[in-house]
Fold this protein.
Amino acid sequence: GLPPTVELPLTVVAIGKLAWVHVPVELFASLGLRIRAQSPFAHTRLVGYTDGYFGYAPDACAYEGGTYEAGASMFDAQGSELLCQSAVRLVHETAGRALQAGSGRDRT
């Protein structure tokens, strides 16, 4: 009896060239590394277990291998991928807002 969809809170906190991506799951490292690699920030860190906890978010290899985490997850491989893509999109949106906010500052 899992619901067909789940709405998860994702948060990005940015200060200068640093960003923290908060996810309410135990994100597999490979997904976290993908988010970091696609981030426009110089330094991006992933923080799990924030704003609630919705279990494991395994990568596709975990599902293919039938790992414990994949079997215990409330997400399927597509759900974990969507979470990763949503986090990347939010990081880019946050970077865009940070650039806009900083465009009116005196840079001297």
About this structure: The chain has a mean pLDDT of 92. The chain is about 45% helix and 20% strand. The first strand starts at residue 11 and ends at 15.
